Amino acid sequence: MVETRLIDVTGLQSLLDALVARGYRVLGPTVRGGAVVNAEITEVADLPRGWGDDQEPGRYRLRPRDDEALFGFAAGAQSAKPVFFPTDELLWRGRRTAGGSGFEAQSAESAQAAQGGGVEEHGEDGPDTRPTALLGVRSCDLSAVGIHDTVLTGRGFTDAHYAQRREGAFVIAVACSDPGGTCFCVSMGTGPRPEQGRGAPFDLSLTELLAPEHRFVVEVGSERGGALLDEIGATAAARGDLAAADAVTEQAAQRMGRRLDTDGIRDLLYASIDSPRWDDVASRCLACTNCTMVCPTCFCTTVEDVSDLSGESAERHRVWDSCFTADFSYIHGGTVRESTRSRYRQWMTHKLASWHDQFGSSGCVGCGRCVTWCPAGIDITEEAAALRGVPGSNLPTPTSPPTPASE
Amino acid sequence: MTVTDRPGAAATARARPTLAVWKFASCDGCQLTLLNCEDELLRLAGAVEIAYFPEATRAVVEGPYDVSLVEGSITTPEELERIQHVRAVSGRLITIGACATAGGIQALRNFGDVAEFRSIVYAHPEYLSTLSRSTPISAHVSVDFELRGCPVNKHQLLEVLAASIQDRKPRIPSHSVCVECKRRGNVCVTVAHGTPCLGPVTQAGCGALCPSFDRGCYGCFGPQDTPNTASIAHQLSELGMSEPEVVRIFRTFNAASEPFRRESERHETGPAPSAEGEDA
Ligand code: SF4
Ligand code: SF4
Ligand code: SF4
Ligand code: SF4
Fold this sequence. Notes:
The complex is a heterodimer of chains A (407) and B (280). Chain A is of the alpha+beta class. Chain A has helices at residues 9-21, 81-84, 108-111, 139-153, 160-168, 185-188, 223-232, 239-254, 265-271, 277-284, 290-294, 340-359, 369-372, 380-388, and strands spanning 3-8, 25-32, 35-40, 51-56, 59-64, 88-96, 103-107, 132-137, 170-174, 204-209, 215-220, 235-236, 301-307, 313-320, 330-331, 334-335. Chain B has helices at residues 9-15, 29-35, 39-47, 77-89, 97-102, 114-121, 154-165, 177-183, 189-193, 209-212, 229-238, 243-250, 258-266, and strands at residues 18-23, 49-52, 65-71, 90-96, 145-147. Residues 1-14 and 276-280 of chain B have low confidence and may be disordered. Chain B has 280 residues and is of the alpha/beta class. Chains A and B meet through strand 5, helix 11 and strand 13 of A and helix 3, helix 7, helix 8, helix 9 and helix 11 of B. Bound molecules: iron/sulfur cluster (SF4) (4 copies).
């Protein structure tokens, strides 16, 4: 039996206060640099009140809404990925011992000072040891976190740093009311409303209702989530509120910006290994890596060793990497995937086909970020349709993609 | 792994490799990057013996030198000869900056007629001895490592020096600026603001400096290893750049680098210019 409550905007502030009082660093959506990004927040006023977004292949713009919605936008510039899986993670640091005859290693925990992460500026004054409360996680991203849980903790070796960050985290999901022009979670079966048991678990899940008064139907996903609501005095949701929340989800599901036909997609990709479409996409693809960086499920990293000038100390970092770089497939003798054609094919085939064989699910959750944030406007749903031989399966887009270079 | 005993201070001093810093046609900005290393400068002076660095000190230690940093491009007959000398007295020769690695801004002359503008600009052009093209050091002598940038990045410079001293491979990626931009958590200026940005075709190293300040990348680190200049040029025109502007954005600090030169010429109107690369 799903337990649901009701809070208003003041109640949301009380929720934030209660999380801060419990020692959480609350990360949530806020407007910065012309987009919705995740950053540390403490107040409802930090949220993107009255902001929506227009998203198309290669284009993102904030759009003022004519209402006071706090979550009236779709997938933000970043997913939850950098929160749990930092862009640059110090693995260990070591230095020569005083006499110079030995070497002592420091664990990452004691050496971690300035972690990047694409989330916010980190203090130079030491590690932030607070557990994270993440507000505003969309359904697609929740599925993506679930995939990362499988990949990084559910197999032979657990990624200890990731597991530690995930374990302590408090997750507040939000149902989408206004999908973006590049969203296709309905096709991927991952949204638009978070469902407990699909993807990573949430503690609470909000559905925002704007009329007649501004309020949130809150689905309780965990005991501690319920306890927090008890603490702030959240009332039970009435039947009318639940129906209104269902209506929000239904109309959102009707308004997906894109769709991807997943029927037999795995076999389609495997059968397309020699498709001329790869040359077409390669003529447009910049091999810039943006799609992989913004993708909430891409998890490839490389390990970098750094030593200082004196050779007295050394550090090992794990940083995000991408299958779109030449270095990525460099082995003795050269780069295996020299051509951009082979790199795009590798990426898309992994996302939509071999991911199933490797991890038992699709590697794409339909968040649309790779489409929006590709500077060349390359659209994975369009490419999939082209491989199928179904042109123009999607809405026409105002900025036409570049014509393939004829050389 | 065993770590061997470290020798005493005297032995360390004896083992210090000598460093020479040379200047050719350039603005001195890359040498200044070295001087701007501040905290690290003392450590650098401890790790190497700065044997020849006219920009910083008049003291000169006789060559040969273990490591030479070379700034600037080759633009005069005198420089043509001097670079041969530098090569001869250098163990490892590392070129630093857009001038030394790609000909620099002065390679704009490669697209024009030097004799013509020389006669227009100077009252006595006959006093001038100059080449018709600006070329990178690697066009004349063998180079052990090329460090990009206009100017070079301080962290990358120290990394290359540390690698050289420790006899290991420098950790200098050749992928795009976008990698650094996203790792930094920037919002993409092209996608979110419609600002033209060369980041996708430009080699990383600056830490995505310009996009971090809401500016498009100018390409000062030169082309990345897989530059699709045709596609980015298409994007630039979609974002409203005129053909002459597209020509200009590829002809800034690395105008003579092959991918940028070729792309710039594709967007020129009128008769094709004769600015073949050194390899031509
Ligand atoms: S492949 Fe694209 S749409 Fe799918 S999860 Fe990754 S970024 Fe989102
Ligand atoms: S893909 Fe679905 S869940 Fe994700 S942001 Fe878009 S509408 Fe929301
Ligand atoms: S598909 Fe787009 S974002 Fe991805 S590497 Fe190619 S150009 Fe960059
Ligand atoms: S701002 Fe420029 S460098 Fe940064 S991701 Fe966008 S295109 Fe790449």
